[in-house]
Amino acid sequence: MSRLRIYDDTRNDTPLAVLDDHAAIAEALNAVGVRFEQWEANQPIAPGASQDEVIAAYRADIDRLMAENGYQSVDVISLKPDHPDRAAFRQKFLNEHTHSEDEVRFFVAGAGQFTLHIDGKVYEVLCEKGDLIGVPDGTPHWFDMSESPYFVAIRLFTNTEGWVANFTGTDIAEQFPRMNPHASAATVS
Prior knowledge:
By secondary structure, this protein is of the alpha+beta class. The protein is built from four helices and eleven strands; from the N terminus they run E-E-H-E-H-H-E-H-E-E-E-E-E-E-E.
């Protein structure tokens, strides 16, 4: 179940809010300029589907975003718990960084946790199958795929070089919870 936990950026012990309703998550993220949507495939996707088959299943939504935001390229990334370089891949994304373009990810399968640092708050977004997140350029954030990653994600880029990070040099990412794929979401009012 998708989840948003919001913290004061100086307190990692108790969230200010915990949301697990998609509409409430989208509303809270939209208020700080972050896109959060739900997509459904227009055709079944079989396990082991090729990049082209995955993109074809979501072509209408991909084309809509490309037209709206000028994205130039799209690809699919897939990672499983038995990948030999999973620890190195995870470490690459764990420190706070920004990008000069939006970071747009759609989770076809599995899950990943984006954590955003915006205006004195930390927004921890657990994205699961069907979730699209669009982190605006210049937004400090980090990503955790857990120690046992499992996800298939569509990525959209304006920069044809793909993912390019500008690390902030802070240690804030180390002060907040990492992804726990076994934790359940709960709503707090």
